[in-house]
Structure formats: structure tokens, C-alpha cells
């Protein structure tokens, strides 16, 4: 799901005129065709991702990492250390990002932060309700070690706002029920 689709609101459009390099234009056209969206929609998504997400990631000092490199790092950390690493990763940067994006650290900010992270390929996030309880499924392709780390991260992240969900992990997913 892309950011504009997740908000489910109609926005006011403005016309602007930009000159872009021909090869960039051709790449955008090709990607729009592959994604089966209009060129206008794709350009809005790209600009939105940059101005709302990319700039914040840059300000937070993030680095890009391939999935293969991330898997290699995960494979070198013992399971018990993965569980200890989750809470470390859930403090500091996420709180700063929540304050920057939402102006508060509460359940709404935690959910916004997770939606934000899901847009960058760390996991796919599906929200639903089951038996009157909110449920979030996080699907990833990093293997069972990521499920250990992600489960510990999510438990700690939700815990910062006083929510203590039931967390279930599989080799490629983590489910949070709260």
C-alpha cells in the first residue's frame, strides 16, 4: 500500500510545471506501466515518499542496506541477543520519529510509525479486527531470525505507550493482537 492510498482522502490538486531529464521521464513511464497506475499517480507517490518519508529518514541518519546484507547481519547474532536487541531498537529513533511526525508518543503515533516503516520494505503490514480486538500482521521475507527480532521490537514499541499485546511469530510473520 502506498502512502496516498493509506490515507483514503481526496486531496486538492495543483498544477505545476517541471522540466525533468528524458531518461528519468522514461523510467517513470515504464514504472507506471508496470504498476498499472497513471504517470501522475506515480509522480505524486514518488514526491510524497520523498518529502514525507525520505527527508525524515535522512534527518534521522539512516543508511540503506540490501536485504542480503541485513540477512547476513541477522545470521551472525545469537537468538537470545536478537530478543535483547529488539527493545534497544524500539527506543530512541522511533520516539524521535513519532514526535517529528505526530507530535506525541501514543498508540496512534506507534501505528503511524509502523505504517511509515512498512512503506520502506521492512515488512508488509495488514491491520484488521478479530473478535473485537485490533490485530496487525507483519509479513517479511528475512526468515525466522527477523521474526524473533521484530517480535521483541514490537513488544517494546507498544510497551512504550502502555500497550502489552499478544505476539505470535512464524518463520515469515509476526502477529500483534491488542
Describe the secondary-structure layout:
Elements: H1 3-7, H2 22-35, H3 39-59, H4 67-75, H5 79-90, H6 93-102, H7 107-118, E1 124-130, E2 133-139, H8 144-159, E3 166-169, E4 173-177
Helix pairs in contact: 2-3, 5-8, 6-7
Structure notes:
- It is globular and about 50 Å long.
- The longest helix has 21 residues, at 39-59.
- A four-stranded antiparallel beta sheet has the order 1-2-4-3.
- Helices cover 56% and strands 13% of the residues.
- The protein is of the alpha+beta class and 178 residues long.
Summed up:
56% of the residues lie in helices and 13% in strands.
Low-confidence stretches: 1-8
Q: What is the chain-wise order of helices and strands?
A: HHHHHHHEEHEE
Report the strand count.
Answer: 4
Beta strand %: 5-15%
Overall average residue pLDDT:
86
Shape: globular
Coarse structural class = alpha+beta
First CA to last CA: what distance?
23 Å
**Major sheet characteristics:** 4 strands, antiparallel
- Biggest sheet, spatial arrangement of strands: 1-2-4-3
What is Rg? 18 Å
Oligomerization status of the protein chains: single chain
In DSSP terms, counting alpha (H) and pi (I) runs of 4 or more, how many helices?
A: 8
Q: Share of helix among residues?
A: 55-70%
Quickly list its features.
178 residues, alpha+beta, four-stranded antiparallel sheet, 4 strands, disordered N terminus
Amino acid at each position: 500500500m502506498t502512502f496516498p492510498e493509506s490515507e483514503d482522502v481526496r486531496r486538492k490538486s495543483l498544477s505545476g510545471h517541471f522540466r525533468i531529464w528524458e531518461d528519468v521521464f522514461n523510467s517513470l513511464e515504464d514504472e507506471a506501466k508496470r504498476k498499472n497506475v497513471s504517470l501522475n499517480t506515480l509522480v505524486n507517490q514518488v514526491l510524497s515518499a520523498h518529502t514525507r518519508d525520505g527527508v525524515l529518514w535522512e534527518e534521522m541518519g539512516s543508511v540503506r542496506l540490501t536485504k542480503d546484507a541485513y540477512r547476513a547481519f541477522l545470521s551472525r547474532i545469537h537468538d537470545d541477543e536478537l530478543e535483547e536487541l529488539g527493545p534497544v531498537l524500539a527506543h530512541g529513533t522511533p520516539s524521535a520519529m513519532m514526535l517529528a511526525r505526530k507530535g506525541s508518543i501514543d498508540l496512534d503515533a506507534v501505528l503511524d510509525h509502523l505504517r511509515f516503516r512498512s512503506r520502506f520494505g521492512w515488512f508488509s503490514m495488514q491491520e484488521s479486527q478479530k473478535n473485537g480486538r485490533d490485530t496487525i500482521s507483519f509479513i517479511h521475507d528475512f526468515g525466522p531470525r527477523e521474526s524473533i527480532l521484530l517480535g521483541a521490537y514490537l513488544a517494546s514499541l507498544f510497551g512504550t505507550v502502555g500497550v502489552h499485546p499478544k505476539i505470535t511469530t512464524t518463520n515469515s510473520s509476526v502477529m500483534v493482537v491488542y
